[in-house]
Design a protein that fits this description.
Layout (H helix, E strand, L loop, with lengths): L3 H20 L17 E7 L2 E7 L3 E3 L4 E9 L3 E3 L11 E2 L2 E13 L5 E10 L4 E5 L3 E6 L6 E6 L3 E6 L22 H33 L6 H15 L7 H20 L8 H9 L6 H19 L6 H18 L5 H7 L1
Parallel strand pairs: 3-12
Antiparallel strand pairs: 1-2, 2-4, 4-8, 5-10, 6-7, 7-8, 9-12, 10-11
Helix pairs in contact: 1-2, 3-4, 3-7, 4-6, 4-7, 5-6
C-alpha cells in the first residue's frame, strides 16, 4: 500500500523529469548505421567416406566483432571422425584470430544415413586487413573394409576481411588538433543543472527501492535443490509442450532442470559441460550409484538426439522421461540421518 510520502515522492520526481526534458537543449539524432546483411561463406572437401564443410557466418566485419565458425564432418557407416576435429592449443590462437569459444557437440545420425560431427568456434581479432581462416585438417578412421584405414581430409583456407574506421593501418592515423574555446549560454547551465538534479534524485530513489527489495529478499531462504527441481518439473508438465509436439523445447527444459539439480545437489558443474564432459566427471564421482549413472547417461544421450538431431520421439517417451526425472530427484534427494529419524519417533 502506498503511503502519502510515496505518492508525493512519485509526483515530485515526475515533475522534475518533465521539467528537465522541456528545458534541456535538443540533442542531435541520427539513424542507426546499417551494418548490412551477413554473408555466409563455406568450403567443402571430400575424401573417401568423409565430407568436410567449413562455414563462416560472415566473411566481412569490423574489428573486435566475433566471427562464428562451424566445422561439420559427415561420415558414412563404418567411418569414424577422431575428436576433437580441430585442436586448439593453450595460446587460443587460430591464424590471425583469437579463439574465444570452442564447443564440440555430440555426434548424431543424419537423415541420409551418414553420421554427423560438429565443432563450433567463435573468433575475434583486433588487426584490420585481409586475413585467412587457415586450412583445417580432420583425421578419420575407415573400417568399411577388412583393414583399418586412417585418413585426413583437408579444407581450403577461407579469406576474411576485417575492417576498421581507422583504415587497415591504424598506427598511421593522426589525432586532430584541439579546437579553441567556445561560449556556453547561461540557459544551458540552468538546463543542465535541472537535468543533473533530476538524475541524482532519480538515482537516489532507484537505489532506495533496490536496497529495500534486496533486504526483503534476504528474509526468504533459497529453496533446496530437490524442492526447486520438483516445482520446475511440475511447471514444465503444466505447459503442455508434449501435447503441442514441441519436443525440442521440452527436452531442452527437462535436461536443464536436471542438470541444475545435479549441480545444486552434488556440486558437479553439469549446466556448463557438454554431455561427454559431464558423463566423464560423473564417472569419477562416487555420489551416484552405478544404476543411476547408467540411467542418467542414457537419458542425456537420448535427449541430445532430440535437441540437436531433430529426432521426434513419441509423446509417451516424453512422459516417461519426465517421470524418470522425478524418480531420479526422489532417489537422490537428501535423506534424514538415522539418529534424527529415531528421535522423531
Amino acid at each position: 500500500m502506498m503511503t502519502p510520502f510515496h505518492i508525493l515522492s512519485h509526483v515530485t520526481l515526475g515533475r522534475l523529469l518533465l521539467a528537465s526534458l522541456l528545458l534541456a537543449p535538443p540533442a542531435g539524432c541520427s539513424p542507426p548505421a546499417d551494418d548490412g546483411e551477413q554473408t555466409p561463406v563455406s568450403t567443402t572437401a571430400q575424401r573417401g567416406p568423409v565430407e568436410l564443410t567449413i562455414t563462416v557466418a560472415d566473411d566481412h566485419g569490423p574489428v573486435g566483432t566475433p566471427v562464428s565458425i562451424e566445422i561439420q564432418a559427415l561420415a558414412e557407416a563404418g567411418a569414424t571422425i577422431l575428436e576433437p576435429m580441430l585442436v586448439i592449443d593453450e595460446s587460443n590462437e587460430l591464424g590471425a584470430f583469437n579463439v574465444i569459444e570452442n564447443v564440440l557437440r555430440p555426434d548424431h545420425p543424419g537423415s541420409d544415413g551418414r553420421r554427423i560431427w560438429t565443432q563450433s568456434l567463435v573468433l575475434d581479432t583486433f588487426e584490420p586487413g585481409e586475413h585467412e581462416l587457415p586450412q583445417i585438417l580432420v583425421r578419420f578412421e575407415d573400417r568399411r573394409g577388412d583393414v583399418l584405414v586412417e585418413g585426413i581430409v583437408e579444407s581450403n583456407a577461407i579469406p576474411i576481411t576485417i575492417s576498421s574506421e581507422l583504415g587497415d593501418q591504424p598506427s598511421t592515423a593522426t589525432l586532430r588538433d584541439i579546437r579553441g574555446p567556445i561560449d556556453i549560454p547561461l540557459v544551458n547551465w540552468i538546463a543542465w543543472t535541472l537535468v543533473g538534479t533530476s538524475i541524482l534524485l532519480a538515482g537516489a530513489w532507484i537505489f532506495f527501492l533496490v536496497r529495500r527489495n534486496v533486504a526483503a529478499g534476504h528474509d526468504t531462504p533459497p529453496l533446496p535443490a530437490h524442492e526447486l527441481a520438483r516445482r520446475e518439473l511440475d511447471a514444465l508438465e503444466a505447459e503442455g509442450l508434449l501435447e503441442r509436439n514441441a519436443f525440442q523445447p521440452f527436452y531442452f527444459r527437462l535436461t536443464d532442470i536436471l542438470r541444475h539439480y545435479i549441480e545444486g545437489r552434488f556440486g558437479l558443474l553439469a549446466p556448463t559441460r557438454t554431455t561427454n564432459e559431464f558423463l566423464t566427471d560423473m564417472g569419477t564421482n562416487s555420489m551416484l550409484e552405478t544404476d543411476q549413472q547408467n540411467s542418467l547417461s542414457r537419458f542425456l544421450r537420448f535427449s541430445d538426439l532430440v535437441k540437436f538431431a531433430l529426432h521426434e520421439p513419441p509423446v509417451e517417451d516424453g512422459r516417461q522421461a519426465l517421470s524418470m526425472a522425478r524418480t531420479f530427484v526422489l532417489e537422490t534427494e537428501p535423506q534424514p540421518d538415522a539418529d534424527q529419524a529415531e528421535g522423531d519417533e
